[in-house]
Amino acid sequence: MADINTKLGTELSAELGSSTLFVTTNVAFYSQQAQLFSKAFEWGGGRLDFFAANAGVAKTQDLYEENEALDENGVPKELDLTTLKVDLDAVVQGIWLFKYFARKNKEKKGGKVVITSSMGGL
Q: What is the model's pTM?
């Protein structure tokens, strides 16, 4: 399991027992997601069978807003693309990482991927 909320993730993992692994991860950052997959593969004894892409945020910024926040040079600050990074980029990167590790499975190569989305994903 992975989430950005370490406290809740750790509590849930403890409640579920030793058959779960929790890794604090912000999937918007490829390096953190890659570390998650690495740890899961190692924890699973060189095997990764399932990837559930279920992270999602709906942090929106209006592309047409008239009162943009400006930087020190009077230029609009970068558009907040967190929603795209989590709801799209991280899913594609997750499939990329899962494919790599699932093909390294010691016994049966491959696995299953499930991707869920809310209206925020649209």
A: 0.85
